[in-house]
Specification:
mainly alpha, 158 residues, globular, 60% helix
């Protein structure tokens, strides 16, 4: 039913909408967070950036596409580096960034927007990407999925 929305909106746009929504809603002061937690928000936001950049770097090192709308152009299955801990570091980085923004804007609504971002990415970005990865890499991708969780794995199994 909603299949027409798959791979349509760039993930960075979803991230920016979540940031703007968190900022906007924070002005109402409905779910305030203590000011003392604000520096933690900057640390979390930057950590999200590093997570996402680590994924981009790994893709570049393996000379495969980072374009989330051209999955069929993937030339290699990347499973080392940060990809030993998450199958989706760029998307994880975006969600972590939205969580950080909750502390930066001092409003817990950011946690709601982080969950909504996660749910959107899961349904309209990750699921279609994984269908394509199964087509491209078959059993190799299936084994990778068994080793590494979609969002975050506690341990790196080799």
């Amino acid at each position: 039913m909603l299949k027409h929305l798959e791979l349509k909106i760039p993930p960075v746009v979803i991230f920016l909408v979540a940031l703007i929504a968190t900022w906007y809603v924070s002005d109402f002061g409905w779910l305030p967070l203590p000011y003392l937690l604000r520096p933690l928000g900057f640390v979390i936001f930057v950590a999200g950036g590093f997570i996402g950049i680590a994924g981009v770097i790994a893709f570049r090192q393996h000379k495969t596409t980072v374009n989330p709308h051209k999955i069929e152009n993937a030339s290699n299955l990347v499973s080392n580096g940060i990809f030993k801990y998450t199958r989706n570091p760029m998307y994880l980085g975006l969600v972590v960034g939205v969580i950080g923004s909750a502390f930066i804007f001092r409003d817990a609504s950011g946690f709601v927007f982080a969950v909504l971002t996660c749910l959107y990415l899961q349904r309209f970005q990750i699921q279609p990407e994984e269908r394509m990865m199964h087509q491209l890499f078959g059993e190799e991708f299936a084994r990778y999925c068994k080793r590494v969780n979609r969002w975050l794995s506690v341990s790196a199994n080799d």
